[in-house]
Each structure stands twice: as C-alpha cells, then as structure tokens.
TrEMBL record:
Residues in FAD dependent oxidoreductase domain copies: 5-196
GO molecular function, one term: oxidoreductase activity
Pfam families: DAO
Membrane-spanning parts: none
GO CC entries: cytoplasm
Keyword annotations: Oxidoreductase
Name assigned to this protein: FAD dependent oxidoreductase domain-containing protein
Record-linked Gene3D superfamilies: D-Amino Acid Oxidase, subunit A, domain 2 (3.30.9.10), FAD/NAD(P)-binding domain (3.50.50.60)
Length: 223
C-alpha cells in the first residue's frame, strides 16, 4: 500500500475499468466508448527535408478520415477511420490490427505516396518499406468530451458522514477521454488538473467536462 493524499485516475481507455476495480461502489458512469485505430508506418522514400515534417489530411478526397504524418525520424505514418466496435483488450496485451484495414492503408499509401509514375518524373515507382504496423486504443467518451474533474466527497460517503459536503473533495480525480487529441491537449489538461489538486479555481470553464453520477445506489462506504 502506498499512502497518498491525492489520486488521479488517468489510465487512458482503461480508466473506467481501473475506477471500477479500486472503487467498485462509486456511483459514477464515465460513459467511455474506446476507439481502435489501426496504423502503418513507412520508411520515407525521399530525403528528409523541412517539408517532411507535416500532416496531410485527405478526408475530403476519400470520403472518410485518412491522415499521412511525416516525422523527422524519416518515417511516414498513415491511419484512417477508427473502429468503435473493437473490444478493449487487457492492459499490457498486444493489440493486433485488422488485416483488412492494414490492406486498405497499404492501398492508400501506394496511391498517394507511391503513384504509378513515381515522383519528379521518375519512371519507376518508389519502393515503400513498412517498418511497423499496429493498433492503438483511444480513450473516447460517448459525448466526445474529455473528463477532467474531482470526485466530490459525498459520492464516496453517500451521505453517511455528516461532515461530507459537495465543497469538500475526496482527493480523487479523473482525467481521461481526450480521444485522439490527448497529446495536443496534454499540457493544458495538466495545468487544469494541478489547479484542481491544489484546490484552486481553473482559469478556464470545465463545467462541460464533469462527472456523471448514477441516479441511485444502495451501497454506502467510507473514503
């Protein structure tokens, strides 16, 4: 056991299952709906330039999400629409990508990275070398909004403690559900969470990112 005054639950798509494991009687519904996204990583067939570090979105061309992202490690990542029906695996397990989606991504790569006539007047198409492929699960919610909130003490005691009030925090916080935008929103979210932990008012309105509680629970337990 590790003693602590504050606990932040931020376990990505597994946040809901973690919450249910450590606080099984807590009447909170996170409304999670994890999304699985398959991806392919190619070796960039061109020399690395300043324009290699870019993101290209082709949604309007193919009719659904399709992204190519070039990185300074000479790789190009490609991903398409997410799968909302995939089953979330156990933490630490390997997530196998959908073979059909991988084939589709390969076809898109050959279409947009490696056209039949090559680049810059080349007569032969460029060879695309796959260096990695996989599946990633995003911590998404049914509402599409992240959860950035503190658990009120009353939700832990269920009214059992007479000194429990909504303005007294339990020391437990939830921070998850950012979908595919976790890295982009990470710094701002970290600032908000630090304000909550320190008992300070966040600089932005987070009322839309609160917790939803079940209407009724027969259980009572101590913090």
């Amino acid at each position: 056991m590790i003693p602590a005054q504050h606990l932040i639950l931020a376990a990505g798509p597994w946040t809901a299952s973690l919450l249910a494991t450590i606080l099984p009687l807590l009447p909170i519904d996170l409304g999670f709906s994890p999304l699985a996204g398959d991806f392919l990583v190619f070796q960039n067939p061109h020399g690395l330039t300043n324009s290699s570090l870019s993101a290209v979105f082709l949604d309007s061309i193919v009719g659904h999400k399709l992204e190519f992202v070039g990185w300074n490690d000479k790789t190009i990542w490609v991903c398409a629409q997410a799968n909302s029906s995939a089953i979330l695996p156990e933490p630490g397990s390997f997530h196998k990508p959908d073979p059909n989606m991988i084939s589709e991504l390969m076809a898109y790569a050959n279409r947009f990275i490696n056209p039949a006539h090559g680049y810059h007047g080349q007569k032969n198409p460029l060879e695309l070398r796959v260096v990695n492929k996989g599946r990633a699960f995003r911590p998404s919610t049914k509402s599409g909004l992240p959860i950035i909130a503190a658990v009120p003490r009353t939700k832990l005691t269920h009214g059992w403690r007479s000194d429990a009030s909504d303005d007294k925090l339990s020391g437990i916080f939830v921070c998850s559900g950012h979908g595919p935008h976790g890295i982009v929103l990470g710094m701002g979210t970290g600032k908000i969470m630090s304000d909550l932990v320190l008992g300070q008012e966040p600089e932005v309105d987070i009322s839309q990112f609160g917790l939803k509680f079940k209407a009724h629970s027969e259980h009572r337990f101590h913090p």
